[in-house]
Design goal:
330 residues, mainly alpha, two-stranded antiparallel sheet, 12 helices, 80% helix, globular
């Protein structure tokens, strides 16, 4: 086994190899793990506790100073300056070639962006805007700014945060209701489905025309777009306000799932194929539940559902393999 001194030298060399283009990023990751010399241990625990305590004390001092002034404008300026500083610091740490601060950088960037966005909201409130106007203008001002930072720094994590903020701003949010029952709420699934389609289109444009300049940005756009598109269509297919409209949305949702499976197989795109298969199974189970929950005994309902899903899974896998083979032949 290599000594600590040898591992440290190898760590320095592989970073230089990557910088010179001799090895690729996956090779760098594998070698970095293999020749890791730093271990977390109790020293690491004490160090991070100290850092956390220092940050909390710093935030407390700033909060005390802001509170003594009694001015919302001053609070916005202090919070905005701190948010900008933390965002810059986090992005700087994320650029470390050896990726030593991967977790720390994400935490700091998240804190910075949240504080910066909150400062914009405070400024809007200080300007006399009301609730809906504050939300609207906060998104209009903050989203382009954070998008610019994400693309300028080529930071995929910051892009994901920004996209989540954009969808949240448009009208989607997640909630936890008691006893770990998960509720996905979309304020307007019609608008959300359109926004999700546009996000998928932006991701495909990145993948075809901007890769590799923008790295894995296309995955962030496509993944979140597919999540919100499928969830919005699922919600629309469950609504029972108008039976005719519900049937139409069931057909649209099912068609969208099948289209994702077909396109994913034809393009050799596991992302589209995976989302299509997952939500197609959810669609089938939802329809099964709506039709038979009140008509069958619980045991028969569960057994029948299990057999039906097993058959659907096998059939979907067979169709996917066939389409994948045809796409590869072309």
């Amino acid at each position: 086994m290599a000594s600590r001194k040898t591992k440290e030298r190898l760590q320095q060399d592989i970073v230089l190899w990557f910088a010179d283009g001799i090895i690729e990023k996956p090779t760098l990751d594998v070698l970095s793990i293999r020749y890791e010399t730093q271990h977390f241990g109790w020293i690491g625990v004490v160090k991070y506790l100290g850092i956390s305590g220092g940050l909390l004390a710093f935030f407390g001092i700033l909060g005390m100073i802001t509170a003594t002034t009694g001015s919302m404008g001053v609070a916005a300026v202090v919070q905005g300056g701190l948010g900008a500083g933390l965002t810059y610091w986090g992005l700087l740490l994320a650029r470390n070639v050896q990726d030593r601060y991967a977790t720390s950088a994400k935490v700091i960037v998240t804190l910075g962006v949240v504080m910066l966005t909150g400062a914009i909201g405070l400024l809007c409130s200080a300007a006399g805007l009301k609730d809906q106007a504050i939300l609207c203008w906060t998104g209009i001002i903050s989203l382009p700014l954070v998008f610019f930072l994400a693309y300028y720094s080529r930071n995929t994590y910051l892009l994901i945060l920004t996209l989540l903020g954009m969808f949240h701003w448009i009208g989607a949010w997640n909630e936890m209701w008691g006893r770990s029952s998960y509720v996905f709420a979309v304020q307007d699934p019609y608008i959300m489905s359109v926004a999700a389609l546009l996000a998928i289109g932006v991701g495909m444009f990145h993948e075809r025309y901007l890769y590799p300049r923008t790295g894995k940005f296309y995955l962030a756009w496509e993944s979140l777009g597919l999540v919100y598109l499928n969830m919005s269509l699922l919600i629309l297919s469950i609504w029972t306000r108008h039976e005719e409209a519900t049937i139409l949305w069931i057909i649209i949702f099912t068609g969208a799932c099948l289209a994702q499976i077909v396109l994913g197989a034809a393009w050799q795109n596991s992302l589209f194929r995976g989302f299509g298969i997952t939500f197609f199974v959810i669609d089938i189970f939802t329809r099964y539940h709506e039709l038979f929950w009140d008509k069958l005994d619980v045991g028969v309902y569960l057994a029948g559902g299990g057999v039906w899903l097993l058959l659907m899974g096998g059939g979907t896998e067979a169709i996917t393999r066939m389409l994948r083979t045809q796409g590869a032949a072309r």
